[in-house]
Write a structure and sequence with these properties.
- β28 and β29 form a beta hairpin.
- Helix content is about 25%, strand content about 25%.
- The N and C termini lie far apart (about 60 Å).
- It folds into 2 domains: about 5-125 and about 175-255, Glutaconate Coenzyme A-transferase (3-Layer(aba) Sandwich); about 275-525, 3-Layer(aba) Sandwich (Glutaconate Coenzyme A-transferase).
- It is an alpha/beta fold.
Length: about 550
Amino acid sequence: MNKVVNVEEALASIKDGAVVAISGFNVAVLPEYLLLNLYNKYKKTGHPKDLFLIAEAFPGAPGRGIDYIARDMMNTGDFGFIRGLLFPFYGFSEVLQKMILENVVEAYSWGLGILSYWFREVGSGRPGVLTKVGLGTIFDPRKEGGALNELAKKRRSATVEIVYVGDEKYLLYRAPKPEVALVRGTTADEIGNLTMEDEAVYGTALNIVQAAKALPNKGIAIAQVLRLARFGSLRPQYVVIPGPLIDYVVVAPKEYHKQTASIDYDPVVSGRIIPPEWQAQEPTPLDVRKVIARRVLLELAEIVKECKRPIIINLGIGIPAEVSNIIAEERLSEYIYSTVESGPWGGTSLHGADFGAVRGPFAILSMPDQFSLYEGGIIDAASLGFLQVDEEGNVNPSMLPGRMPGPGGFPVIADGAPRLIFAGEFSAGSRDIIVKDGQLKIEKDGNITKFVKRVYKIIWNGREGLKRGQKVLYVTERAVFRLTQEGLELVEVAPGVDVEKHILNRMEFKPVVKRYEIMDERLFDEEPMKLLADLRGSL
């Protein structure tokens, strides 16, 4: 049976009000051609309308995918295409966030790992995801329960409930089962066998199809591919989604099948080629962000010494993602195996709208498998960004009034990692802070305080983290804090910094101050830190 059809035929069976699941970590593995044509079909005919969209990550990038659709909806004033959204991240679409704040569509947000698991659980016939991730945060039903606006709180299409297992509290995440799966692969044969050899990641594509196909109401699965092959010519080990699970295959033009937001195709990103180490990374200029990334790496090197073996880590978006560059500069890839939530192992992370893709990974897992490593504490440490930190150590990585990008992969990673290193600049706003002569020079400080009395939204709960036994540091360019039972303790200060003027007076609460050290002078030197010889000598 030849399942290869044109896009109009493939989309014809999607009905009004359908729950549509979409693959895609930003533009990586996004079936953009299917998504845009589905919207164009609505614009021409008025159908399908009132769709509830569920995505494994953000299905697009600024100006692409769902952001393109949101901008067009706002320009035309026609919002009938979408009635609801469940995404882990909305940060690449200011228009979509505006629509949510104005109650144009009901909207929910769960952690990226929770949604990845959710597709797998629904595909297994289970009611949802049972986990402790989210207790005491915005996902807890005693707070927002993952609802982002009043319309969502009223309709409650997606819910989070407290469930007891014995005497212990868990959260049960539930949402409507998908009726349609829109996924993407690289190559398909006539019966729909799907491979992903040129993709940057696997994402959750197989589990999205499983969720749509599961009982009680078996749905349809539509795959976008770049090219076709004869049945029997694809190596079975390369098939990610078996053909019998796919209903229709659509060949997309290359412009709607980019590897990432800014890369059409690079074999280094798909892992077909791993560049020689000497080509992997040129040194980055020394600035405040590099100081922070270096300090994170120093902590990771200490964990290697403590464990007396190579360690597995996760690096989040922002400054933590830049730590992979420093790992490459210092030639420590044999001692520190970095992972990214989208699935890659090793290599150097890409940034911005390309985040999730990696140059030169040595392995790529599906997202549910990757997040099992995080929530289960199988990794040794994680470094994640922060927007706000409060006196109890609670962390808000991204949300402010009028700004709700969503948590991304943060909640599961932060809850599961046995050692946490939150990394970010100490202040925000217009500032002039440079590294010069081995010291930090604060000519003009930022006017936005990030160490606040109470964070705007709790995405990671410090008290719960201490209960789990997590070891937690907060690393900035001028100070390092440790989370203790008494609160944040100041443990390191950058050379050239006035503790009262530049640290204590710039915080809305008083940290614990006992004895602190000066941050390692190598952080502020143009030359590499030369950590390789140190590690080799300690193992």
